[in-house]
Design a protein that fits this description.
Length: 172
């Protein structure tokens, strides 16, 4: 899917505030509501917009600690990796999980209610998955950055010519 400057502007605006009305969104990106809605629908249907969510402050809901966990597994067959991934998906404490290259097989970010909560997570959830060879844990001391997809830095093809009927306030 080719994205033009309006599509990128729409995505940037929605990443900042997905609750914008179509009128507010259109005003920010320089389109009227109808063409703006058509573009949002096209981005959704094309899978560029995967969904909408709310960011929740983990501390405010009783999960003040974030742990970065590196895990190595014994078996690297497709089935074993699939089963490990399914097990991680079922654990509500797991916020993100990545299959990675390097010294470890997985990078997992976990939200817990302190060291006792983490110990409980290891005992009752993670270590019940068969095939874990070893793991290394690091407690996050402070989050320094959390960001969205850097759209202006991605290889988006900018199409300068936008259909005249979509441009706000311009007619031929």
């Amino acid at each position: 899917m080719k994205l033009d400057k309006f599509d990128v502007s729409i995505l940037e605006a929605l990443q900042k505030d997905a609750r914008l009305s179509l009128q507010e969104l259109g005003k920010q990106v320089g389109l009227t509501a109808s063409p703006c809605w058509n573009r949002v629908k096209r981005l959704e249907e094309g899978g560029v917009i995967e969904g909408y969510s709310v960011r929740v402050n983990p501390e405010k809901v009783g999960l003040p600690e974030t742990v970065i966990l590196h895990v190595t597994v014994d078996n690297h067959s497709d089935e074993a990796l699939f089963q490990f991934g399914k097990a991680l998906e079922a654990m509500p404490e797991v916020m993100e999980a990545f299959l990675v290259s390097g010294d470890y097989d997985y990078y997992i970010r976990v939200a817990v209610d302190g060291t006792r909560g983490y110990e409980r997570f290891l005992r009752e959830s993670l270590y019940k998955i068969p095939g874990i060879r070893n793991s290394k844990s690091s407690f996050v001391l402070r989050r320094l950055k959390q960001s969205h997809v850097p759209l202006r830095q991605s290889p988006v093809e900018a199409i300068e010519e936008v259909p005249v009927k979509e441009r706000k306030g311009r007619r031929r």
